[in-house]
Amino acid sequence: MWSCSIAGIIGCLIYIPIYYVLIHYLPEECRQSKIFYGILAGMVILFFMTTPLWCYSWPSFLAAAGFSISASVIIATDWSCCWIPDEPIILLLIIDGFMLAGQYIIIDSMVCTVSLFFYVGLYLLFPKGIGSGDIKLAAALCLGCPGQSAYIMTAAAFFSAAAGAFIYQRFHRTSKIPFGPYLLLGWWCAAVIGGECIEWLLFI
């Protein structure tokens, strides 16, 4: 494990390319203000700096930085125009393959398979409730969940999305919200507290 202070300094530097990508490479129909992108990039960096990946080693730090860039683009596009582009998902899959090959994370293949079938089933049953981009994102994130924590990711994503939809409905009179940001929040919960939650559930 290397110094978290060094990781913090480099994390601040990662903010610059994330902000640049958001400003220059998003489609016109998904554009928001520069202030929005600045706040978004900062929040994503802060969230990912709390994950074990950020301070474990240089390879895992690079993986976390890649996750941060992908997450920023996904949140920006899904929140603005309910669309998740393929490029950040492909980057997530490349990072997953790198982490799995180097055994930086070890997944439970059965849990990942069950979780993926769950999302596909939701898409087939409620095609207007969840999009194909959400399915692809869920698959990429499940492959990045260590152990059995894909369950935690799914539960956290749906609970937070339900809360978000309730709050959003109070102000906008509609409960339709982008699901991608909540999937990413679920992955963050799985990375930070997933192991402890699984142990607690098995204990009770």
UniProtKB/TrEMBL annotation:
It comes from Megasphaera paucivorans. GO terms for cellular component: membrane. One of its GO terms (molecular function) is aspartic-type endopeptidase activity. Pfam families: Peptidase_A24. Keywords: Membrane, Transmembrane, Transmembrane helix. Residues 68-163 form the Prepilin type IV endopeptidase peptidase domain. The chain crosses the membrane at residues 6-23, 35-54, 60-84, 105-126, 150-168, 180-203. This is Type IV leader peptidase family protein.
